[in-house]
Design goal:
The chain is mainly α and 1505 residues long. The chain contains 59 helices and 14 strands. It starts with 25 loop residues before the first helix and ends with a helix.
Length: 1505
Amino acid sequence: MIEENQLAVTSASGVVFAIPPGHPGWIESTFCKRECSRYVCSSDKGPLCTCGRTWTYHKTHGIKNVGVSEEVWSPAHHTVSSPTDSYGTIDFLGGPHPNKAQFIRLGFDSGTDHIFQLLTREWGLELPKLVISVHGGKVNFKLNPRLKLVFKEGLLRAAKTTGAWILTGGTSTGVTHHVGDALISERSPRLRSGRVVSIGVAPWGVVENRASLIGRKKDVAYQSIDHPRSKFAALNNRHSYFLLADNGTVGRYGAEIALRRKLEKYISSQRLPARTNCSIPVVCLVVEGGMDTIRTVLEYVTDSPPVPVVVVEGSGRAANLISFAHKYAKEMEESSTALDGIREQLLAEIQKTFNISQSQTNKLLAELLQCVENVDLITIFKPSETSESKSLNQLDRAILCALFRARYLTAAEQLSLALAWNRVDIARSEIFIYGQEWADGALEEAMMEALARNRVDFVKLLLEMGVQMAKFLTIHRLEELYNSKQGPANTLRYIVRDVRPHLPRNYSYSLIDIGLVVNKLMGGAYRCSYTRRKFRHSYTDMMKNFTKETPSRNVLNHGLSQYIESGHLSLIEDLQYHVEPSHNMFTQPFNELLVWSVLTKRQDMAKLMWHHGEESLAKALVASKLYQAMAIEAADDDLEVEISDELRSYAAEFDREALELLDYCYRQDDDLAMQLLTCELSNWSRQTCLRLAFACNHRELLAHPGSQLILGDLWLGGLRTRRSTNLKIVLAIICPPLILQLEFKSKEELQLMPQTEEEHMIDLKDEGDPSEMNHHSSSCSSSPIVSTQTDHIKANKAKRANTFKCVEPSNSDDPECNFCTNDIDSDSNNLPPSQTDSIEGVKNIHSETIGPGCAALHHHHQLPFTRKLLEFYAAPITKFWTWTIAYFFFLAVYTYTLLIRTPPNPEWNEYYVIVYIASFGSEKIREILASEPVNLKRKLLVWASSMWNCCDAFFIVEFFVGMILRNHESTLDHGRVLYCLNIVYWYIRILTILRVSRFLGPFVTMIGWMLQRMVYYVTLMLVVLMSYGVFRQSVLFPHEEFSWFLVRDIFFKPYFMIYGELFADDINPPCGNGTNPDGSFNPDMPPCETGRWLNPLLMTAYLLMINILMLNLLIAVFNSIFLKTNVHSHKIWKFNRFAVVMEYDQKPALPPPFIVMNHFRLFTQWCRRRYAGVKESYDCGLKLFLDKDSLERLNDFEEESMEGLVREREVKHNQTNEERIRLIGQRLDGLNSKFDDSHHPDNALILVDSLESRLNLLERAIERATNTCLAFNDYVISQESFRQSSGEKTSSVTPSEATTVIASALDGEKWTSTPHHSDTSSNNSDNEPVEGDESEHGDTMAHKDSFPKTLASANKIVRRASTSHLLNRKQMILKRQLTEVHDEEENNRKTTMSSLLFRGNSREKHRPFASAKVVAEAERLRELEGDVYHMMEGVIRRRRHRDSENLDASLDEMIRTTPIQFEEIGTSTDDDEMDTNILESLAIDIEDSPIMPEEATHDALDSNK
C-alpha cells in the first residue's frame, strides 16, 4: 500500500513506484547504468569492440562472450543494466568559488517520467514555462563577436524572462561552449533567485575523467579543461545539471540523442501551471552545425506535434544552408521555377561546406529541402544591422515569436503563454494586433491571472486594450485575489490572526475579515465599507443565492454554510467562480484593488492602481497609512527588520506622490485643490484628505500653503479679520457689544467653507428646503448634499484674503437660471490687474453658462444679528480664548484655595474649583459619547489613544478622591495633599494651550519627544545607580534588619548625588572601635566595618559614570532632538495646528463651568431625536458637501491633474543627467557596433558597395554641373557662328533665354536607362536661314522665331559634350579599378570576404569575385566604346562632306586618336539624323551602366571558370 507522501506514478511498463523521490534509495532503484556484455569486433576499429573498448578490458571484467563476425552490436542486446553508481555534486574548479552542479549517470532508455521526477522533486526545479533546446556543431568554432554578443544577450533574456530550461549537449565543445560563455555572468546554480536552469544531456562515454565521477552522493572536484590529444570532452562548468546518458559505449556520441528528444517530448506534454490550458512549449535553437544538425531539424519539424526551429543566420555551415534554403522556399510559393535556379548552387555549397560525395550531397539536399517545406516552423534570426531595429530584432523575441507562428494557438492561448513568460512586449506586438477577435471573458481571465501573478505591465496593457474594471471586479474575484498564494510574501496572515483569532488551518479570507484588518490598520474612527451593515447584508444575501445556484459544488456549499453560521468563509481553493453581473458591488474598483495591492505588499501594482481611477490624492494617503501601520505590526511581531523598513519606504513613497499631486493641483487651480482637501470622501469612510493626512502623520502635506489656507480660514470661522485678530477677539469676549464692530463673512462664503453635518443641515433649513432636510434627517449613511455649488466661479487669489465666491439657489423666473453669485466687483478692486481680468473672465463665463437672469444678481447676503452672535461664539478662535480665559481663572482660584488655610467646610472658591473640574469631566464624557465610532468599546479606544485624555481622566478621579477625603475632618490634611498634587498637573496642562503658538508649539513637541527618549536613559541610569546603591548600603550598614526603608536608602542618596549632593559626611565616616582617630577613648565611636575603604573608590567610579558619561549622553540625545526638530519647526507647528483647529471646532461654545448649559441642551435634543426615532449621526468632522455634478467636475480636475503630473515627470526625467548619459551610452554602443561591423571582413563588401554607390552619385552631380557649363559655352559659340553665316546683326542673348535653352537641353538627358530621342525636324537647323525684319524692333521677333531651332541645336551639342565626357570618365574609373586589383594581388592580402550567398562560410571568395567583376566591366565598356566610335565616324564624315561649320572639335580629336579603322555605315538621306539618335542613345546607355550588379557577378564568375 503506497502512502500519501510517496510517489505513486505508473510508468509505461506498468511499474508503480513504492519509494518516493527524496528517499536515499530512490535514485539507485530507479536509474541504471549500461555495460557491454559481449565482445563484437568492429571492422573499422580493428581489435576494438564496437562499444569502443579492447578485448583486454572485456576479459579483465569477466566478459568472455565473443560475437560472430557478421553480428551487429546494439546497446539493447549487448549490454547489461545495473543500478547506477554515479550521482552527486560536481565542484568545478578554476574560479574564485567553485561552481556546483548536480549530475547522474543513467541509462539511455531510462523513463522520461522518472527523469522529470528527478529534476522537479529530487533536485527541486520548478516547472519550466519554456524549453530551449540548443543544437549545433560539436566541434569548436568561432562566432562573429557581434553575433556572439547578440546570442549571449538574447539567450539569457529569453531564459530569465520566461523561466525556461536550456537543454544542451553538456560538454565544453562546439555550440555548448558558446552557451556556457553566455552563462558566465549568471549566479551560482545553488542560488535560486535569478538563475538560469541549464541542463546538459551528454553521453557518459565521451566525458573526460569520468572515472572520478563514480560514487554515490559524491562531491567531485572537477577541472573543466580539454586535453588536446584526447578523444573525450570535458563537462561545461557553467551548467547546473547533467544527465549523463550511458549506452555502454566509449568515445561515441549518440546515446544522448534519443534520451534528450524523449525528455523534451515528455516535458512538452505537461501543462503549464495556474490558469493556462497550454502545454509547456519547446523550441529548437540552431547555431552553426553539421549534417547531423540538418537531420535533427528535420526530425523536429516533421514530428507530431512539430517543434518550431530558430536558426541563427551567419553562424556558419548548417545554419547558413538552412537560412538560404528557407529564403528561397518563401519565393517558391509564388514562383515554381525559383527552386531550379538554386538547386545547383545548393549542391555546390553543400559539397564545398561538408566535403562529401555526390550521393551524400543529393541526400542532404533532399533533407534540407524537406526541412523548409513548412516555412512557418522555421524562423531565421539575423542580427539587426541598425541600432533603430535592435530592440525589435533580438534573439529572445525571435524564439518566442516562432512559437506563436508554429503552434497555431488561439489568441487567448498566446496571451496565456505571454503571461507565463512575463513578456509584455511580445503580447503588445504579436497578440494585440489590429483585427484580433477575443472570446467572451478571455481578457477578464487574463486580467485575473495578471493580477494574481503581479504582472504590472500586463495589467497596464489590458487596461489599454479596453478591459472594464468595473465589470471585471466582483466579490468572488476579489476574495480569490486575497487568498492567492502567488505574488510576493506579505504579512497579511499575521494581521488577520489579530482580528480573527483561532483560525483553522485551511482558512480563506472573506471581505469582512479584510474590512476588520483595514479598520485595525487605519485606526481611529475609520470604518471600511466591508464592515458596514449595508455591505454585510448584501454580502450574506449574495452568498445564499450563490449556494442555491450551485448545489453540486459540495466544497463551496460547505464553506458558504459555514460563513452563514459563523460569519466568515472557509478555504475554497482552486475554484473558478461563475460571476453574475449582479454580484458586482464595487463602483470604484481601483480603490479596492489599491487596498488589495497594499495589504499584499505589491508596491508596483499599488502604484498602477493609484494612477488609474478617481480620488488619487485620497488613495495615496490611505496607502501611506496602511503601510505605516503594517510596518508597526511587522516590528511588533518581531519579523525581519528589513520588512518593516521596506514597508516604511513604501509609505514614504506614497507620501511623496500625494504631496506632488497636491502641489501640481494647487499650481493649476488653488480653489479646486483646496476643495480636494476638504470634500467628503464617501468611499473612504466619509473622511477628508486633510484628516487622512493627519492620520498618516503627513507633515509636509498639512504644511502645504493650500492646507494652511484652509486651516487659517477654519480657525477664524465666520469672522473676517486680518490684523490684531487675537486682541479684537479678547476685547469682544470681555465686552460683547464690540461683536457688532467685527466683520463677518457672507452667507454664501460660509456655505463654501467646510462644516459639520449638523451645521450643513441648519443651512438647508434656513434655505427652506424641507424635502432635502427630511432626507438627511432620515439617513446619515448618505452624505448631505449641497446643490448650491458650481466650479464656474473661482476666486483665484481672492480667497486667500478670505473673500469667497459662491452661489445659492435662485428664485428667478428664468428656467435656465439655477444659480446666482455674489458681487465679485466689490472684492476685485483690491486685486492686481491680472487677477481682476481673470475675475472678469469668470463673470462672463458664468453669465453665459447659467443664464442672463442669474448673472444680473450679484450681491452679498449679510448675516442677521443672531447669526453673527452664533458665528462669533462658534468660531474656534473664540472658543480658544474663551476656554483659555476660563482656564487661567480656574488656576488662579485653585491656587488661591491651596495657598490659604483649608477651612472645615468648602467655601465659594473651592466650590468653583469643584464645579469646574466636574463640568470638565462631563465634557470628557461627552467627547467619548460623541466620537465617531459606533461601538462603545471602539469609542473608548479612540478616546484613550490621546495621552492628555488619559491624564485628564486620572487626575479628575484623583481630585474627587481628595475631595472625599477633604470632607472628613480626620482625613482633611490628606485630602489637601491630594489637592496639591492635583494642581501640579493642571499647571502642566498649560502646554496644551501653548501648542497654538507659532514659537512655543514646536518646543512643546520637543519636550514630548525628549521625554520618550529619556525613558531609555532612565533605564540605563537605574542600572548604574542600583549597582552602586546596593554596594554602598550593604557595606556601610551590614547589620540592618529588613524594612522598606532599605529599598529607599538604595536609591535615595545615590540619586541625589547625580545633582551634586554628595553627602560628604557619609563618604568615609570616622570609626575606631571606641577610640578617636587621634587615639583618645570615645565610647560613641562606631566600630570600623570591613571594606568601608572601598566606598570612596566605587563612589568615584559611580560619579564618573553617572555625572560625566550618562548626563552628557542624555544632553547629546536632547541636542540631536532639538536640532532635528528646530529645522522642521514650522512644519511641526503647522501639523499640530490641524489638531488644535479640529479640537476647538468640536468643543462647545461655553467653557467650564458654564458648559453644563450646553450639555443640558444637547441632552434635550438627544431625547427629542430618540422620541422621534431619528438615527444618530456621529460624524462631527469638517467637510465640504458637494452635489453630484460638482463632485464629478472635481474628480475630472483631479484626473486631469494626475495626467499632467505624469507628463511633467516624464519631461523632467528626460532632462536629467542620468537619462542623457544613458541615451549617449546607447548611441555610443550603436556607433561602436557599426565601427566593429566596418572592420569585420564579412561586412567589408557591403561597406565598399555602399561607398561606391555614394561616390557614383557624387560624380554624376559634378558631371551634370560640368555639362551645364560646357553647354552654355557651346551655345554661345553656335549663336555667333549662326549669325555670321546668315549675314545678319548678332543679337545678344539674355541670361534668362540662355538658361531656358540649357535647361531644355538638359531635360532631355535623363539619368535612367531609357533612351530619349530628339526632335528629328530640328536636325538640319544649323544651315537654315532666319527670316525677320531689318529694323531693330524686328530682331526680337526673329530671335523668337529661331528659338525652337536653336533649342534643337543646343540639344545636340549638350549630348555630344556629355558623350565625350562620359567616355573619359569611364576610362578613368576603369583604370582606377584595374590599379586597385593589381595592388591587391601584389600585396597578397588574405581577404576573408564572404560570398553574397554564404558570407559567413566562404571567406576566400572576395578576390575572385572582385577580379571577375572588374574584367567583365572592362570588356563591356570596350564594346560600348567601339560602337560609339563607329557611329561618330559616320556622323563626322557626312558633316565634312556638307562643309558643316559647327563641327565639334572634340569629335575630330577623337577620330585622330582612335586606332580603330572606321567603316562607312549607311547611305540613307536621313543617316545624319539616325546616327545622331543612335549616338545619343549610346551615350545614355554608357551613363546608366552600373559598375557591376550583384546578379552579373555570378555570370562573370562562371565565364572565368
